[in-house]
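Good day; I would like, with your permission, to put a structural problem before you. What I wish to show you is a protein chain and, alongside it, a tokenised description of its three-dimensional fold. Please examine both parts with care and let me know of anything in them that strikes you as inconsistent. Thank you for your consideration; the sequence and its tokens are set out here:

***
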Amino acid sequence: MKQAPKHPVRLERQGNVALIVIENPPVNALGVAVRRGIAAALNAAVAHEQTDAVVIAANGRTFPVGADIREFDMAPQEPSLGQLCNLIERARKPVVAAIQGTALGGGLELAMAAHYRIAAKSARMGLPEIHLGTLPGAGGTQRLPRLIGPELALDMMLSGNQVGAGIAAEMGLIDLVTDNDLRTEAVDYARSVAVTRPTSANRTHLADGAGYMASVAARREQVTMELGANALAPHKIVDCVEAALLLPMETGLDVERSAFEDCIASRESEGLRHAFFAERAAAKFPEATEAKPAQVDRVAIVGGGMMGAGIAIAALQSGFAVTLVEQGESGVNAALERIGAYYERSVAKGRLSEAQGAAALTHLQLTNKLDTLGEADLIVEAIAEDFDLKSQMLAEIGALAKPDAVIATNTSYLDLAALAAASGRPADTVGLHFFAPAQVNKLVEVGVHDTASAQSVMTAQGFVRALGKTPVRARVHAGFGTGYIGNSILEAYRHAADIMLEDGATPAQIDGAMRSFGFQLGPYQVADMSGLDIAYARRQTKPRDPDARYVEIADKMVEQGWLGQKSNRGYYIYAEGQRQGVPNGDVLKLIAEHRAQKGITPRTFSDRDIRDRILLAIVNAGARLLGEGVAARPSDIDVVMMLGFGYPRSRGGPMMDADATTPSIIASRLSVLAPEEPTLWGAAPVLTMLAQERQKFAELNAS
């Protein structure tokens, strides 16, 4: 017989103290069942004549980390979190919140509504709603400035950063920090305050009205200057903190509620929430039904260049023992210099202490001997992007690796199935495509070919997650060598840009249009930064469709020796040591001569033309990858483009963007997921473009 689900909240008694215990794993999210349970338990506790004080605590590893984000798009269910917080604050007996793990978002708002807060020494707390394009909507914008003042409150809410318990106590957010048993300390603390009468949030920080308003005005000006006048959530947060001074608590809560609803309804918040769920969905691999990640303790990396060294640093930072293999003594020394320089910079900038940097390096073994690979649980090949070199190296790795080791190649373009076969152990071999810089970028594409075992795939996925990165599965078939998800779409993006460049636009205009769209850099700035010779080499080896339009401008630039930042001259000219360039007049002259040779009459493109053409190219490429099964879901493409290529996160990624903002362009669509699989953006079906839209785009570019 199926057991009834366990109630997520229970009421216990410890003498004269009522203990409300939340147990809603894994993170004690404050969904409607939890809220109703807390409200019922609180009412019962306060009504009991033998209750002198109440403690709200949580089982598991953490205090509630926030509201249930899935409810944001649902009809309100009472009590809302705001109503629950008001109920706690108005309780006629003192309420103590006992915080362990993290108290984030709605969890911290719940704690602030209590009359006192006690925290474990290791606890952390924060209000990260800004990362979802919204603001604390359960009284946080009104209670936090009353507790810690406007400056610190604005710092916490506008950054979304967490603070430790010790700092929170210094700020006035926490009343007591303990290194002892939290539950016992909380009950004892509740008994000690039981003789006092509960008070609402401390209002002492509202005393200096002129200073308070000056702080608010300065922060509003800063937000406008740094983020623009249309940055909705940051400006609403400033407005709400201002309301905490000017208005009574009840009216301030009304202002906050209205601001929260405006934010939730915004396109920005919709995109950020989509991104939040998309990243979590990406990590769900179908192989999980067959296997679980194997334990990985030692990682080996073959190749100590910029990529290999970056992967090594990422593994060291995550606590892995690392063996890095390079050719010859000079190669080993160069790799050590790269890794050492990273730790020196990190210590100099205060990101790590000297002790932490030294400790990380004790887990690094540098060698030029391949026979050390037999000790590793997972081996990453990260040598030059050359099929013959990689095939030879993978064959050697396959012969030396222990039987249960996973072998991964960091190829970005080459045929994964053929490389896996070259290892002699195709079932154990997968792709791990790290994005540069590997020690920083959060994206790793996990390449899955037809003969890869579920065990090797899940072990690779588990390793990526242990690095604190987001794995995205890319299924590649025999003969597929177009760059997984990210680089396949990047080719389409660049091709659309190159066609407009040939037809009349300038590099600076295209880059400017994409920056105004939300990218940090435009395509030609990125090309200069990456090096034009790398893409040139790829084009020379890749078979070319004779019927497809080909733009030779970049090839002509490489043949002139204009390679981008590495030669101080590419689409832009760079002063020595500078990353910002000015338009290269010689390139504009080369483009004009090129157009004349091909008989092209330049035409004018608006920024909107540029953005629409590039978005359409990206979505078309995404549709093709979905149709071929390379990407499992549209949101996986969104994750790759956001994390790997800087697609503006506030827009949710290109596939969501296409569905949300360009219905006139995407007139015909096709569902690509099973009907029972939930979508990530509300009730609309998961849609992408049909063949006729691809044909339309091909005709547009051929004209």
